[in-house]
Amino acid sequence: TSQWYNNAVTWASARGVVSGYGGGIFKPDDPVSLEQVFVILWNYMGNPPLTGDADAVGPHSEWAGNAIGWAQAVGLPNDLPFTRVTDPANRAQTAQMLTNLLKK
């Protein structure tokens, strides 16, 4: 059956914005971590080479390092309360990241 998110996932996957869990598997009902949001935004922006210090945000997954470095360099975590980037992102945090991105 068709889900409400099918078109969005298909669009984002075809453009390399999201890749899911591998093998074409997506879990849209799973929480999205802060580092996953950084990766999605980095992919959406075309994987810019600008890098900062990924370690400045604390422990993170190795696969997210480039995106976190970019996010840190452009200020996405600014004014963003969080404990760990591996924690689920809430709506307010995601809105703040998008606001920070749009300010650039």
Features:
single chain; 104 residues; mainly alpha; 4 helices; 0% strand
Quick structural gist:
By secondary structure, this protein is mainly alpha-helical.
Mean pLDDT: 92
Backbone structural class: mainly alpha
Number of strands: 0
DSSP helix count?
4
Share of residues in helices: 40-55%
Rg calculated over all Cα atoms: 14 Å
- The general outline is globular
Describe the 3D structure.
- The chain is mainly α.
- Helices cover 40% and strands 0% of the residues.
- The protein contains four helices and no strands.
- α2 packs across α3.
- The longest helix is centred in the C-terminal third of the chain and has 12 residues.
- The chain is globular, with a radius of gyration of 14 Å.
- The mean pLDDT is 92.
Task: Detail the topology: elements first, then pairings.
Layout: H1 6-14, H2 34-44, H3 65-74, H4 91-102
